[in-house]
Design a protein that fits this description.
Blueprint: H1 15-22, H2 26-29, H3 33-47, E1 50-52, E2 55-56, H4 67-102, H5 128-139, H6 145-157, H7 161-165, E3 172-173, E4 178-182, E5 189-193, H8 196-209, H9 231-245, H10 255-266, H11 271-278, H12 283-286, H13 294-308
Antiparallel strand pairs: 1-2, 3-4, 4-5
Helix pairs in contact: 3-4, 5-6, 5-9, 6-8, 6-10
Amino acid sequence: MRKNKNYTISSTSTVRQACNFYFGTPKFLSLTGNTQKDYESVLINTCNTPVQNGKLFGGIKLKDVRFKNVTYLYDTWLTTRGVRRANHYATCLSILFNTAIRHEAMISNPASLIQRTKNKPRKIKWSEEQVKLFLDTAYSAFKWRSIGLIAHMAYDWAQRMGDMRLLRWSNIDFDAKRLDLEQSKRRADVHIPIDDSLIKMLIQQREDFGFQDYVAPRVTPRNGSYSPYNNQEISALVNEVKEEAGLPSELWGMDLRRTGITEMVEAGVDITGIMQVSGHNSPQSVMPYLVNTFSGASTALNKRKANKK
């Protein structure tokens, strides 16, 4: 991680110098380790992107940054990384420029003027049969044991795959059959009971991997330690299991959290109860995860009929 050795920046500082300055600010250093790595990777990649006559964006002085430069970057991100990542890159760049403004190195933030493409929310939901087939396939081979457990926990507890890959044994109370987790995204605390089928798998996993900190680490050591999978590895392993199981490619691991939340809605759980599990801080933030389903509509209409009797 770069440290901020220069305590000031000016309008003649390059974008790359501004990045190095930002990486040493208290604001940046207060972020979680994973968020720091993400922001740093995004901004370094941005600096290494050509924007005019082959000149890298990182070599442009802050006073010379123009709106056409950032729109060119955004169009490049849309083409190479998709809408969601392009918008994330634009957010990181905007944070950088706002930092420069606060230190009087820029007057305005050109990244804030980008007309962002709206990311169409995903509504893909796994069926119960698809989840079962995936887990059966993953648990059938030791090489997929941890990825199966990560998916199992994400689905059962309606949590993010990223939090499950970093889950530690200290988060689990086997006697009480309980998960206590501080989510990485919103820092929400969730406390979730663990059902018998999952606790059985966790006990088996602890027998094989309880000698180290992580619940579902790489199944083979890397550099002498059993470290967590990174997000790219998880995506690749999920695809391997899906292919072996004959599941459609449109299913993503990240959809398991939405699937778990949607199933709670279909079961008639109220929004407050869902938030207790999902960690969302407002009903509005739960809405993107909800989809209209035949099962959900049937439950609602049956309840209406029952109330008329």
